[in-house]
Amino acid sequence: SIPGRLLFGIRKPKKTILGMELAGKVEDIGPSVKGFKKREPVFASSYGAGFGAYAEYKCLPENGFIAPKPSNMTYEEAAVVPFGAHTAMHFLKKGKISKGKKVLINGAAGSVGSNAVQLAKYYGASVTGVCHSRHLAMIKSLGADQVIDYTKEDFTNRKETYDIIFDTVGKTAFSACIKSLRPKGYYLMTVFGISHLLGKLWLAISSKKRIIIGEAVEKKEDIIFIKELIEAGHLTSVVDRSFPLEQAAEAHRYVEAGNKMGSVVIRFDHNAYQQK
Fold first, then answer.
1. Of 138, 241, 242, 271, which one's alpha carbon is 20 to 30 angstroms from that of 211?
2. What is the Cα–Cα distance from 138 to 108, expressed in whole angstroms?
3. How many CA atoms lie within 13 A of 221 on its CB side?
4. What Cα–Cα distance (Å) separates residue 253 from each residue in 76, 237, 250, 258, 260?
5. 3-state secondary structure 127-177
6. Beta carbons of 224 and 67 less than 8 angstroms apart
7. What predicted TM-score, i.e. pTM, was given to this entire model?
8. In a 3-state reduction of DSSP, which class is residue 276?
9. 276 pLDDT exceeds 50?
10. Strand duo 102-106 + 126-131: pairing
C-alpha cells in the first residue's frame, strides 16, 4: 500500500534491521532504570525504537512499550503479542466495542484478527470470524460465535449487518462493507489506500457510519493491560511456525504467501551463535 511504502521505504527498506516485536531477557540496564532488573524476562515492541528486533540485542527505553513477560507464556508466544494484540485492542476501542455489540472480523486467522476475536469476546460482543476453511476450527476455539469461509461465501452478500466490521486484510470491496454496517456502525481498517481516505471524508458528511484508519499509538499502560489479560486467561497467542534467524528471508516468504495462521516467529539461538 502507499502508506506502507511511505513508512517503510519506497525503493528499499528505510530500516536495515527489521523486526518490531520481541521477547527475551534483560541483558543490562542503565543507572537510572528502576522498573526492570537484569535477567528479567520481558516482551516489547521495538516499532517506536527504530525496529531492529532481528538481532541478538536491542536497546529499549524503560518507558517504552515493554513489560514483564506474561508468566503463562513461552518467549515465542510472548514475542508475537505486542503488535497483534495492541493493534486489535486499539481499533476495537476506537469502534466503541462493548457488551452486546455485533462484530465481524475479516481476516480472523491473522495476527491482528486472532487477537481481535478474543478481545471482542472479552468485551462481551457477538463475534463472527471470516477466514479460510483450514482455519475455521482455530477461530471457533478462540471463541467466535460464527465463522464464515471466504473461499465459499462473501460475507457482504448476507443480509446481516454489524455494529463493527474490522477488516484486517483490506481485500473486500469498500462499498460492500459499508452496506453491511448498521446505521451508526464502525468500519475499522488496518490496511487502507487513497480510496478509503476519500471514503472516510464522504461518510463524514453523508452518514453516521464511520471509518477508523491509521496506526495504533503505543502506550505503556496498554502493554501492561495486555499482560494482565494474558495471565487471567483471556488472551492467547496463535503461533504458526518458528524460523531461526538465519532463515529470516524464508520466514518472510512464508508469510507473504498468505497461508499463515496467527503469527510467525523468528528465534535467536544465543548458544548456537556463541559457538560459531
1. 138
2. 10
3. 1
4. 19, 21, 5, 9, 11
5. EEEEECHHHHHHHHHCCCCEEEECCCCCHHHCCCCEEEEEECCCCCCHHHH
6. yes
7. 0.89
8. coil
9. no
10. parallel
